[in-house]
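Observation: inputs received (chain + adenosine-5'-triphosphate).
Thought: call the complex predictor directly.
Action: predict_structure
Action Input:
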Amino acid sequence: MNPPLVAADSLATSFPSRSRKEPSVPVLCGISLAVMPGEMVSIVGPSGSGKSTLLYCLSGLESPTSGMVTLMGQDLASLRRPRVAALRRDHVGFVFQQFNLVPSLSARENVALPARLARRPLDAAAVTAALASVGLSEHGRKRPGELSGGQQQRVAIARVLAHRPDVVFADEPTGSLDTSNGAEVLALLRSAAAAGSTVVLVTHDLEAAALADRVLVLRDGSIHTELHSPTPDAVLGAVRSAGSALTR
Ligand SMILES: Nc1ncnc2c1ncn2[C@@H]1O[C@H](COP(=O)(O)OP(=O)(O)OP(=O)(O)O)[C@@H](O)[C@H]1O
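Observation:
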């Protein structure tokens, strides 16, 4: 069996409390998981349960307080920061709720930007194909401000897809979109997984979560439930259970 592309072992992290006298606040409490090549995994849970923090730790954007994260089989704690950045640059794509496009660049230039920054040539045909795959062939010359929110998110996805990353981390990618644009963005992420990318998705949208092969439900920084081949109803039930447990 292939090794996981993303894995955590007893991952824990905490943030300093506001007052120095108080202990730091635990946010992730001993999370272990493994995401296999080509798998799509959703992370859901009540607000504040640690979903985004987990995504940032798994992608090396944040360092955990303890435990181990491996990305592409490499123990992130054993690597120097530039090496972690290079690992992300070469193997990882990110999709965020707020699109994170460069406003002064056209859609085409935004798609080509990561390759330019990595000094890796990306030919014009690859940019054209990426924009076509998200239905934006006619909009390549427009700047983000001239595009709708849904179109901007599709540019962000084209930017990821153009580089065929091994792993895609998506943090609430449909959070700023209406239902129909959200569904298109999710279908693109699902097809990225079908094409071989591993996808880790944080979402509040339970229908979206159920598109994944597996759903992890977080509660208070721990994995409360794990669902395989989930249905929206099963995700809803698990999240309700996690949420109600939180308020007890
Ligand atoms: N940089 C930080 N410094 C201090 N506390 C933080 C920091 N980042 C997150 N937290 C705290 O960690 C907890 C988990 O935050 P996180 O954003 O991971 O939760 P979440 O499940 O993604 O929430 P939401 O669904 O509302 O986006 C929250 O209580 C939050 O206030």
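Thought: report the result.
Final Answer: The longest helix spans residues 179-194. Residues 244-248 have pLDDT under 50 and may be disordered.
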